[in-house]
Amino acid sequence: xxxxxxxxxxxxxxxxxxxxxxxxxxxxxxxxxxxxxxxxxxxxxxxxxxxxxxxxxxxxxxxxxxxxxxxxxxxxxxxxxxxxxxxxxxxxxxxxxxxxxxxxxxxxxxxxxxxxxxxxxxxxxxxxxxxxxxxxxxxxxxxxxxxxxxxxxxxxxxxxxxxxxxxxxxxxxxxxxxxxxxxxxxxxxxxxxxxxxxxxxxxxxxxxxxxxxxxxxxxxxxxxxxxxxxxxxxxxxxxxxxxxxxxxxxxxxxxxxxxxxxxxxxxxxxxxxxxxxxxxxxxxx
Length: 285
Hints:
The protein has 285 residues and is an alpha/beta fold. Helix content is 35%, strand content 19%.
């Protein structure tokens, strides 16, 4: 029973869900740097409207998905109160998945499994195509999510592009590790190294072979722009040179890279789809 579980308050004290017995509990997994962060506003409105009637909000931040909640527990609380005037408490950060997942989340997931990709044309098409492979795809760990979406000879992704009137779709495998995620997001360019420079604001330096520089940045910066949108990181792409190249050639290539990187901020990108084994997330721009 849910009342058997406990969570940690941001000050380190335990909160027993038994204290909420007989009340309506809304448990939310949140992040301060997520596209859904503005939902704090309607949640706060709901809390104010129904709290006196027994509604409790259990806000448990998580930093597992794209490193979107990097701040301390107190920083997250200050962010919520400052930007969204929240009056309900934020709990201590906790993992949703993996070896350190919160026992409460493990219980909740066992009670109600994955039920789809949400709403929108891309979500609908992805779900329909994956069901052709396996009606029970959502619980099958053997399905390669990227390959399943692309299909044999790109048949499935081409069908989706056709249904979306030619809208370009990039499929990127999601990872909770920001280095892996940034590397995937810059594909098909080969990435030599990713150095995380800062978490607030998010920024990183990426090294690619000189021969891969144009591919990594993309036409008018589109590939780098897309990678930045997907990962949430400002990405500074630098070439890695062969020992044989002259200093003058290095300067020329580096200058061109800086110009192309500046173009990242001025170019729009098409719809992108982030794929993980557990879910498909859509980022529309």
